[in-house]
Amino acid sequence: MSNDPTTPVPDSPFRPEPGDRDLAPQFVLPLVVRIERAAPPPRTDALETAARAVLVMLGDERSTGDGEWARVMRDWQDARIRKVVRRARGAEWRRAEALPGITVTGKTAEVRVFPPVPLDGWPKDLARLQVSGTDLDDPEPPVDADPSGPVLWMNPDLGMSAGKAMAQAGHGAQLAWWELDDAERTAWRDAGYPLAVRTPASARWSGLTTSGLPVVRDAGFTEIAPGSCTVVADHPALR
């Protein structure tokens, strides 16, 4: 995958222009974040947990080989790589937990990721959940990221809802995963998929996008313009 931020790769899953991937049946990876009224998670914790949830799904034995989710995971990755984050609380969250999927926890955040579903075929208990209302804040500024570990750098000049940013962080984690070899993936999985999500200063952003690291360019389905560079995936093995 080319990392030139000015020239999207033909038929990239994130390129803004139509391509062969648009001709395939379209699927979406659902993620549900738990947001209770009395105790919403911090924004950065939610973003990091969502990114880890995507990695957990990609690395799960059910998603590969002859696993029960392997076929739909392949179909999803052969088309556009869509992710949609919805929110749940109380009984909504309990119903979501009853569906096949994996719950990933952060410091306080909880995100449940589900096998991909057809774009127009969401299970009713997920389809009824709201996409809006995932605006979260960090009570305190996040500490500096460990430079020896993976970091997903978010575009400092784009305003995104927490739900949109969670999906973009998941895209970044997935690009990093694709770029790693089997041994590097295994090491990341065995360590529990450590990562940080941070927003650099605007002055540093352009350097990150031209550093040769994987870059997410959004297709522009929601919130932001097509082709917007949203995340740079910085993994030690890719530097």
Automatic annotation (TrEMBL):
InterPro entries: Pep_tRNA_hydro_II_dom_sf, PTH2. SUPFAM superfamilies: Peptidyl-tRNA hydrolase II (SSF102462). Pfam families: PTH2 (PF01981). Residues 1-23 are annotated as: Disordered. GO terms for molecular function: hydrolase activity. Keywords: Hydrolase. Residues 7-16 have a biased composition (Pro residues). Gene3D superfamilies: Bit1. Its EC number is 3.1.1.29. It catalyses: an N-acyl-L-alpha-aminoacyl-tRNA + H2O = an N-acyl-L-amino acid + a tRNA + H(+). This is peptidyl-tRNA hydrolase. It comes from Streptomyces lancefieldiae.
